Amino acid sequence: MHAANIEQNPETRIYSLIEPYDAYAEAFCAAYPGVKRQTVEEAMADDNVHAVCICSSTDTHADLIERAAKAGKAIFCEKPIDLDAARVRDCLAVVNQHQVPFLIGFNRRFDPHFSALKSALERGDLGEITSVIITSRDPAPPPAQYSKSSGGMFRDMTIHDLDMARFLVGEEPIAVTAHGSCKVDPAIGEAGDIDTSVVVLTFASGAMATIHNSRRSGYGYDQRIEVHGEKGMLQVGNITENALVSSTQHGQQLATPKYFFLERYEQAFAAEWLHFVEVLNGAKPSCSGDDGERALALADAAILSMQLARR
Amino acid sequence: MHAANIEQNPETRIYSLIEPYDAYAEAFCAAYPGVKRQTVEEAMADDNVHAVCICSSTDTHADLIERAAKAGKAIFCEKPIDLDAARVRDCLAVVNQHQVPFLIGFNRRFDPHFSALKSALERGDLGEITSVIITSRDPAPPPAQYSKSSGGMFRDMTIHDLDMARFLVGEEPIAVTAHGSCKVDPAIGEAGDIDTSVVVLTFASGAMATIHNSRRSGYGYDQRIEVHGEKGMLQVGNITENALVSSTQHGQQLATPKYFFLERYEQAFAAEWLHFVEVLNGAKPSCSGDDGERALALADAAILSMQLARR
Amino acid sequence: MHAANIEQNPETRIYSLIEPYDAYAEAFCAAYPGVKRQTVEEAMADDNVHAVCICSSTDTHADLIERAAKAGKAIFCEKPIDLDAARVRDCLAVVNQHQVPFLIGFNRRFDPHFSALKSALERGDLGEITSVIITSRDPAPPPAQYSKSSGGMFRDMTIHDLDMARFLVGEEPIAVTAHGSCKVDPAIGEAGDIDTSVVVLTFASGAMATIHNSRRSGYGYDQRIEVHGEKGMLQVGNITENALVSSTQHGQQLATPKYFFLERYEQAFAAEWLHFVEVLNGAKPSCSGDDGERALALADAAILSMQLARR
Amino acid sequence: MHAANIEQNPETRIYSLIEPYDAYAEAFCAAYPGVKRQTVEEAMADDNVHAVCICSSTDTHADLIERAAKAGKAIFCEKPIDLDAARVRDCLAVVNQHQVPFLIGFNRRFDPHFSALKSALERGDLGEITSVIITSRDPAPPPAQYSKSSGGMFRDMTIHDLDMARFLVGEEPIAVTAHGSCKVDPAIGEAGDIDTSVVVLTFASGAMATIHNSRRSGYGYDQRIEVHGEKGMLQVGNITENALVSSTQHGQQLATPKYFFLERYEQAFAAEWLHFVEVLNGAKPSCSGDDGERALALADAAILSMQLARR
Fold first, then answer.
1. Count of domains observed in chain D
2. Same domain for D39 and D135?
3. Could you read off the pLDDT of D158-191 as tens digits, one per residue?
């Protein structure tokens, strides 16, 4: 998906691929003729590489970011930077030291629906924000073993919503309270993780943000946001597979929400790359390393809150 | 239903019942203690009867209206006045001669949703009206023998929509084109009637009104109106049984529209009686004998148009 | 409103009114001719009084309940029984001792939309419940002085939602976490109350219920419920003033939710009285004194949680 | 737009451009480096040209189709083939004689929403079709002079809906009745055209299709379809700019429908080209020259019907 977005942009081209698996690398290069395969070392030393798009496994992110920063490359990196807060801090220090353009991939900020919501808030449509309610439910749970490697639901999934809450409220939370349980797949519980949760953030202004997560909606990828303020409410509902409505003796039936995150956020990923190109051209990244660090800190706080409540 | 509305109004009480069938009359009087049973002659001669509510079978309407008018009673009568245009004309002449308050029961004009639509039009929300689209579909077809006694679908069912079109556009149609077929119950066709139709009215201003009717929706009582004008569109959709929405892997499911006309138009019937009380108190009836006559004339024109097309 | 429902029911009639204010009592008796005015003593001693409908100010409830119970009258009482948990316990002991029919007025349980939701849950449409999200926002804040007498937002307003959460989940909460702030009217804060809150209930099964409250929605009376389970989600949305939709260059505009609680819950109050008549006829009350006591205990727990977090 | 779809498809590439205007041709070749500019003669004689995509002005279509057919090229052509029925017949005779793959661009057949509707009909979701209602309203009227060159609203705009009616009902109409007026721009009327219309098609089965058109909706590009059958109704509503809903004291506000046809039918145009590639690979075109001819014949019949009614 990133590859398609890179190629479609008139200002960016895929120059080389760093990929340990031969089969995948060959398939990729067949689809994108002219793309060469490089090692990390080769790419970092190659002056034709102006920017890197890091979408490898999470445990490689921080190392690759540091190497790219040291080589003076502009960096786009999928979230999270790392699962460990200290490692994130050190990594961002390297980025700051080398002053390279850096964009972290909180793709939802770039979704046109959520962008319209953010614009309406900035325009003052609601006046002062009093509360935010974010619903984010996966269509179906991942394999239980994923829980471990992902750092747990709060660090893997809720982190998007924690970032969104900060983004929308425009203020840093002063407290995090989290409740979680295992209601979807017992194997996830056995792996030490949760699959159902409510997280409440409170802000110094008295505003509150509530995040509802589940690893299983049962009806598609459920991505909704509701913001309340002085003048009323703004909502973004789900985007359905199609606009067909069927009315029979059983009722009125609408399509399910788009099922897969790549499908739901297709436009967001495209807009994200567009913004990265702006960053390459000197714009300030709308989603910085600091945002990545803060969202991880909130996820860590949520884990702590849940652990304290269980004692 | 009329009885309940009469009793609920602080200004009206049921004084007597004219009802040929003993069993029904007894049940009614048991439910409304104190109501006496009268013959038509007795009621017309009784000074305690100030107004009559005619909701008997269609073929008795014109005669009862004339007798009530001659006796100086205020009259509420269910549509239609009669199925024969000449008979309607004669009947209304009697009403006019005796100058009694007269309200014809085009109940939909009093529906709060359609009233809100009419108010918006009068307020100029749309500017000049360019077209009206009325959808009116019964949940399930009546017995085929009803077709005969009812005067056919256009005179029985479409007549409501023809009145609504005149009411909304605020102008008399200059032409009627009708298309009908029998797609629901062959027995209706054998009885010489239709069960599916499209009627187009054109107006001198160039505005058009289209009426979509069917004796079977398959999903409840389908009552929708759409009006287009210079500035956009106004729509009234269906009123569902309840507000429950179910989202599963099969999609999002909403309740069916209210199934029965008494349920859908419960508020309309209550508002209609309220208006009749205003008429008793001297107000101009918002829905006159003339309106009844004109709607029938349009239904007759629709029948003629369909017959001509079939030759 | 209760008076109208009592009179409309074929099995109940208003016999007498207990009302300290002459002006109100006279207006009432004018509207309901034949209703006599009594003191509490007279009514308790009158064998013609079979049941009492207590809708006086909150601080009189417990006393009136006890006197009616001792006199052997069936009791319908508006929530809450009292603002003090100990007082409620004592009062209910008296009710239990005298074994009189007792229904507490959590009117929302009787709303046809929420009833349809409850029926769907009982039918197993969702399988096991994983979470409940209740939104309850008043259209506009009450006077600040009301905060004091009402016992605070949690005991006055949230108590309905706490009852609804228990009703829907069908299980007792094991923990309550509450967050509140004053975002609507500073005078409410000065009176020691809050106007904006999030309350999370957790259940032994791992299910969670979240309640979003505000004293001001800005767009009408906002009453929504969302339930998630194994098989998907059930939602009840707002009921709008009318079904008119206006489409212009500015977008598609729908009516606001019904503004006033008597209007929104008109059908619920009627159904509630219908159920009380069933209780008079021997049915088990679907909403008992115990339910009133438990909801208050949860409100008290919410207050405690909020106070602890603020230290 | 076609260029982007051609380039995105792994099986097709733009080889050359035939374009009389230098400025446009140069801009195009700058955006698509490697594309050469050719005359019609050069392209027809060039064996590297396997297929042509004709999206020039309407009056050039028939001639270009014939030349491409004679040169053995596969042909994609935007609707209409020509505004004159006899010219269309002759042109299609040439196509048939040379047996080249030929796809006519009724793009709406390829829209995913309407495709889902068509699939549901083929699956028998509705049983036998009784009626189809198509709404197609442009956001704002074109310049009046466009009316002339476009062949009038029925041949230019309604033709899409006439094709859709045939496509959905799966049967040829036996009669066309049309009503049109000039309600939007008097200059359109002065140019001899209409801007507001209702067209009714009747089918031998008794099914009916109604097409509502306007050159101005006032609220965006209004593209809706409703199909009724034995078992109920299927609807496709409008696709809005975004999913934001704003609730204030003025009501609930949703976004307008997508405004521009290229935006609304972006996915349709992409799917159309995908199908053309299937046609290149031997598939039967789902939208043939015959479909183009029949839609034009219906548009001509609509014009005749309207003229007859005006005498």
1. 2
2. no
3. 999 999 999 999 999 999 999 999 999 999 999 9
Domain presence at residue C125: yes
Test B251 with A247 for CB contact under 8 angstroms: no
A221 and A157 in one domain?
A: yes
Residues in C lying within 8 Å of D, measured between beta carbons: 217-220, 240, 247-256
What are the residues of chain B with a beta carbon less than 8 Å away from any beta carbon of chain A? Answer: 217-220, 240, 247-256
Report the CATH number that the domain containing residue C238 is assigned in CATH. 3.30.360.10
Contact A244 D120 (CB under 8 A): yes
**Cβ within 8 Å, pair A256-B252:** yes
- Asked if D251 lies within 8 A of C249 by C-beta distance, the reply is no
Q: Which residue of B has its CA nearest to C234?
A: B246
Chain D neighbors of B165, CB-CB under 8 A: none
- pLDDT one-digit tens code per residue, C90-110: 999 999 999 999 999 999 999
Looking at the fold, whether A71 and A118 belong to one and the same domain comes out as: no
pLDDT digits (tens, 9 = 90+) for C134-193: 999 999 999 988 887 889 999 999 999 999 999 999 999 999 999 999 999 999 999 999
Sequence letter at residue D243: A
| Inside any domain, residue D117 | yes
pTM of the complete model: 0.94
* Domain-terminating residue out of C107, C125, C142: C107
Residue A160 included in any domain? yes
User: Which of B112, B232, B242 has the CB atom closest to C242's CB atom?
Assistant: B112
Which of A106, A133, A156 is the endpoint of a domain?
A106
A65 & A128 share domain? no
Structure ipTM over 0.90, yes or no: yes
Is the residue at A149 inside a domain? Answer: yes
Print the domain residue range for B136.
Answer: 108-260+287-310
Each residue of A270-300: pLDDT tens digit? 999 999 999 999 999 999 999 999 999 999 9
Same structural domain, C247 and C145: yes
* A52 and A150 in a common domain: no
Give the chain A residue nearest B247 (alpha carbons).
Answer: A219
Q: Hey, which chains touch D, using 3+ CB pairs under 8 Å?
A: A, B, C
Q: For the domain that residue A80 is a member of, what is the CATH number?
A: 3.40.50.720
User: What would the mean pLDDT of B181-202 be, rounded to a whole number?
Assistant: 96
pLDDT band at A23 (very low <50, low <70, confident <90, very high): very high
CB contact under 8 A, A246 and D234: yes
How far apart CA C166 and CA C157 sit, in angstroms, is 15
Query: Cα separation of D3 and D18, whole Å?
Result: 13
List residues of chain A with CB under 8 Å from any CB of chain B. Answer: 217-220, 240, 247-256
Same domain, C86 and C226: no
